[in-house]
Design a protein that fits this description.
The protein is α+β, with helices and mostly antiparallel strands. The chain is 28% helix and 18% strand. Strands 2, 3, 6, 9, 10, 11, 12 and 13 form an 8-stranded mixed beta sheet that branches. Strands 7-1-5-4-8 form a 5-stranded mixed beta sheet. The chain has a two-stranded antiparallel sheet with strand order 14-15. α1 runs antiparallel to α3 and α1 crosses α8. The protein is globular and about 85 Å long.
Length: 468
Amino acid sequence: MKLQPPQFIHLYWTCPLKLRQEEKGKRERGLPAFYSNVITTEELESIVNDIKGLIEDTIAFEYSSRKRKHELNEEQLESKHVMENIIANSVIQQINRTLQTNLATSRPHLLEAQTDFEPRVEAFWFAGGINPTEAIQKLRKNMPYLKLFEGDPINVRVQYLGKSVLHLRHDYPLKEIMSLSESENPSLEVPQFKFDPRVLGYTFKRRHGTNIPGFWPGDPCEFGLLSYHNRGHMHTRPETFDDESDALITQAIFASYSWLLSQACYQGFSTFQDITYPLVNQAVITNGQDWSFYVYQLNTTLLYAEHADENPRRNICWVTEPTKLFEKVEGEKVYGLNTDVLKSLIQFYVNAPAKRSEIDMKPYLGKSVQVIADITHTERREWLERRYKHLVTNRPRHRRMPEIYHWQKIYVLDNKTRPLDKKRHPFEFGINVLNRRLDDHTPRYIPRCLRANPKKRSVGRWEKTYYP
């Protein structure tokens, strides 16, 4: 950042739920055999018998007894996907509370875990290997030093914006399912997609790239254990698509990859600096009745330029098909409770994280100062904290960005018909407003009464800046 300060604004692709090759992931059906050893069969059966009645009471209350007319408006009550998400969120929260309460005595890591409700999850990365558009090829062809690279693939910037129902975090990461060397197995083929993202409905949006895993840097619980997601959006998809399973897998891959990538960024890795150890996430997608389970292991974050094709590592996602937790609810009674779903869910909760003492978890960060909170200089620490959080909010600036209007394009740029007009706009001075640096602004003015030496007018008028 010190060598090349970022610009005020960038152009990124926003991410709809459409699977692309940038996750560089391989899908495997069924949960890994690793989960057969996290808990014994006898203990698993005992836990299911203990919580079975509580789960039935929760389902019966949320689907039958609870009245929501006083909580929601008519539009929400009439919307099928909105109501499904509301009920699913309530069921998820109650089941999570039940499982944590009953398992915490025998699984201390659940007592140490943090639970976040509707956390803000954002991730940003560069995806390479994309075929250049005609406009880019034409631009390269007209530039002598780019003519040789006319047909070379391009990188696109991708920004994921998401929000899970809730997720659990811990001080230590989950144990790896497979080693990094195993992820380099060439038999794990990954489908490739090299077309321009606009063919899938992606859109451009100018914003700052952000990596936020639902908490701020410095939080001790910086590794994910489990995340819940709803699936009400499936009601908004045309039935003719007939791709429910693929859509859910896509949702799980995007959510898991993005959450793990943002966690990796807090450890000092990025889309340009590959991780040195794998990270694992457990994801659950449900509407309250249909439950599907996913395990995602992040093995690489290098997806740009030549790494899109030459990186031997693959990210792995294990998936299960949606399974009903119960058949129906009638008269405040639950029929056909499926204990296999509860067993899979319990296995996720009892999977304990472990400290990796033999690994340097933050190999690219400093030893004494790793986050802003570690800075001892009070004024610098507070300024950087305030500036960083304002930057990642992506709030619009109070002044609109200068633009070239149609009449200026016609009469000033293309046809020199207004030679006597006074030059007032940036483009008339050869200034590209998109190349403005992040530190290219007037510092905040300090009133004289708040200055250290108010008698000297020219001293201390502007706030100090502490850009790296």
